Each structure stands twice: as structure tokens, then as C-alpha cells.
Amino acid sequence: MSIEVKNITKIYGQQKALDDVSFKINSGEIVGFLGPNGAGKSTMMKIITGFIPPSSGDVFVNEMDAIEQSLEIRKIIGYLPENNPLYHDMYVKEYLEFVAGIYKLGKASKNRIDEIVELTGLTIEQKKKIGALSKGYKQRVGLAQALIHNPEVLILDEPTSGLDPNQIIEIRNLIMKIGKQKTIMLSTHIMQEVEAICDRTIIINNGKIVADDETGNYQKQYADKYQTIIVEFSTKVEMSAIEKISGVVKVKQLNQNNWLIQSKPDIDIRPEIFNFAVKNNLTVLAMQKKEKKLEDVFHELTLKN
Ligand code: ADP
Ligand code: MG
Fold first, then answer.
1. I need a surface site. Which of 4, 17, 88, 229 has the fewest CB within 10 A?
2. Whose CA is nearest to atom 27 of ligand 1?
3. Relative to the CA of 158, which ligand 1 atom is closest?
């Protein structure tokens, strides 16, 4: 079950919210749609789920045209909209029955609701009014409504936004559990979220895709031109002496005894630094390799334009 987005542009009045966006999500992938606020994430998700039309371009879900066959598409997509709109006066079960009714689940709905209540961890809260639930449990209800018709594709718009750290972990675990059988696209502006759950991350900024790669590849692909080591020696050292260490490209003094030492990315100069210290009667108090995080990559990609 794939999602294919081809040259989608969306213009609101004068504003281009999406500008010629294309990507493909394959069956079984969990893909993160990462971008700052206003990047166009929700707009893209509303178009994929058939809630709003694009200004131009095509979307295919399981090879069906999302615009022309939007009713068909909705049967195979589960959608958790931004801010998870729910009926707060309804009871959890009553709401899920209502949603099951929309999907015309008929007789199967009772079993399906029980199954989903169990899967989303709502069992102990199922008799409460939605308005009385904590935000984390409301989010579980949102996921339950998205899953009720057993869709193969899930579109989750900022599923953990506004939750506390424990709730975030619970919802992430739930998404990963569900993701074993489904194709998932989830949006977020939090780098750690994609690092924690997504196989692949598409980064969007100002309505344009600025990167699309396996999440683990970002660090590698955009790694510094240098390998950076931060060292603390026990006593004062001359910069010129450090510069002479084999493999060193650049040296910067951070403060009295702390140094930032850079080498080419393909060599590890830590043993050389250590030997240098031994030869010069210095003690290495600390030595640390500075990793470039996805967070740095995200800032680079979304702040420069
Ligand atoms: P994100 O979900 O990444 O925060 P959105 O897709 O909500 O971004 O918004 C993208 C841009 O389109 C924003 O600048 C937003 O102000 C604008 N926008 C979104 N919806 C509308 C709308 N209904 N009318 C006018 N502008 C909109
Ligand atoms: Mg949004």
C-alpha cells in the first residue's frame, strides 16, 4: 500500500503553502514528515487524505487517485488530524461506535471496537467521557478512531504534540507497534521523534522538500567535512604543538586547557592525540568525539533559506 505524491502545489490566496512537492512512500514504511511550523505538513496531509484539493499535481494512494476517488481512499486511510478534534461530550465507546458507524462496520463493529480499545490501551478508560480524559488518553482515542476500519495507511499529523514526556514515549511505542503492519506517514517538528520512530525522514521547509533519506543516513550524508574531537589537557599546551599532531587539520582553543581538534572525517586521530599527550607529559582529562546530530542537519536545512 503506497502513497505517491507528484508535483503537488497548493496556493492559499497569494501564498504558496506547497511548491511542487513529490515523494513516494512504500508499503510498510514509517516515514517522518519533519519541518518547522508553517512548512506545509498539515496541508500535505489534508491533500493526501482527500480533505482539501491541491492547486495542481496528483496524489495516488494504492494507485487510486486521491482527488477523484477520495471516498474510496478514505476507506483505506486512517487519519489523525492536527490537534486531534474529538467530541468531548461523548463517551469513549460511544464515540468509537459512532466512527464505526461512519465506516459502516455493521455487526463486526463490536468486536472491532473491543480489539482497538485493547490495542490502544483504552480498556480502563473506555467508559469515561472523552472530555474527562488526560491529553495522552485523548490521543489514544484519536489513534483508535484512525484505526477502527483497519486501514492499511495511517496519516498522523503531529501525534505527540502537547503531550508530557511519559505520554510521548507511550504514544511513540504504540505507533511503532501499529507500524509493524501498516504504512505510516507522521508529521512532527521534533527531530527526536523521527529519530525514535521513523525509518525514513522527509524534511520540508517553506513548502518545499529539502531532504529525503533514511533517518540514519542524515548524519552520514551531511557529516562535517571534518571529524571533531574535544580534548581537555591537564596543563597549558602551545597551539602550534597540537597543530603538528599527525592528521590534524584545524585547531581551536575553547578555553585555557580545552581544545577543539579537527581532522579529515575518515581517520580517528584520538590515538595520535593520546600519544602526543604521553610524549609531552600531559594528562588527558577528557576526550570526546563530537557527533553531528540530526538536529544540526535539520537546522542547516531549514534555516538557511
Ligand atoms: P504546518 O502543518 O507545517 O505547520 P500548514 O500546512 O498548516 O503548515 O501551513 C502551511 C502554510 O499555509 C502556513 O504558512 C499557513 O499559514 C498557510 N495556511 C494553512 N492553511 C491555510 C488556510 N486555510 N488559509 C490560508 N493559509 C493557510
Ligand atoms: Mg501542522
1. 88
2. 12
3. 2
Place domain 3-218 in its CATH homologous superfamily: P-loop containing nucleotide triphosphate hydrolases (3.40.50.300)
CA distance 287 to 228: 11
pLDDT in tens, 193-241: 999 999 999 999 999 999 999 998 887 776 666 788 999 999 999 999 9
Rounded to the nearest angstrom, the distance between the alpha carbon of 198 and the centre of ligand 1 is 24
pTM: 0.81
* Helix then strand then coil, % of the chain, to nearest 5: 35, 30, 35
User: Whose alpha carbon is nearest atom 26 of ligand 1?
Assistant: 12
| Confidence at residue 304, expressed as pLDDT on a 0 to 100 scale | 52
**What's the grid cell of residue 211?**
531532504
Q: How far is the CA of 17 from the centre of ligand 1 (A)?
A: 6
CATH tag for 227-295 (out of 3.40.1410.10, 3.40.50.720, 3.30.465.60, 3.30.70.100): 3.30.70.100
Non-local (6+) Cβ contacts of 88 within 8 A are 129, 130, 131
Domain ranges for the chain: 3-218, 227-295
